Amino acid sequence: MPTASTTAQTVHKRTLKGQKAAALRTPELDATHARLLLLFNGFTPTECLIERAEEYTPEAQLIADELERSGLIERVH
To answer: How far apart are CA 4 and CA 10, in angstroms?
Structure first.
């Protein structure tokens, strides 16, 4: 299964499961995971989101990979 590792043009979005998790603030997501999940909008290149997130969360790439493996985000293109 691919991970959120990206090229400059890769874009990810929240899945339906991810939308629900973000809206309900499910206990499975800690604050850092929830904050990063909210960034994935289906428009902004994932690489840009990761770079911004790494300013406050150095492990942002690892968390993005976890979100994808958990089915909370998916690749759009």
So the answer is: 9
**How far apart are alpha carbons 12 and 4 in whole angstroms?**
8
Lookup: tokens for 37: 């999940």
Distance between CA atoms of 21 and 18, rounded to whole angstroms? 5
What sign does the dihedral 58-63-65-67 (CA atoms) show? negative
Instruction: Note the pLDDT tens digit of each residue in 18-74.
Output: 999 999 987 889 999 999 999 999 999 999 999 999 999 999 999 999 999 999 999
Is residue 73 within a helix (H) or strand (E), and if so which, with residue range? Answer: strand 73-75
- Residue 35 burial (CB < 10 Å; 0-12/13-18/19+)? middle
Predicted local confidence at residue 1, as pLDDT? 44
* Phi, psi (degrees; rounded to nearest 5) at 68: -70, -45
Amino acid identity at 34: A
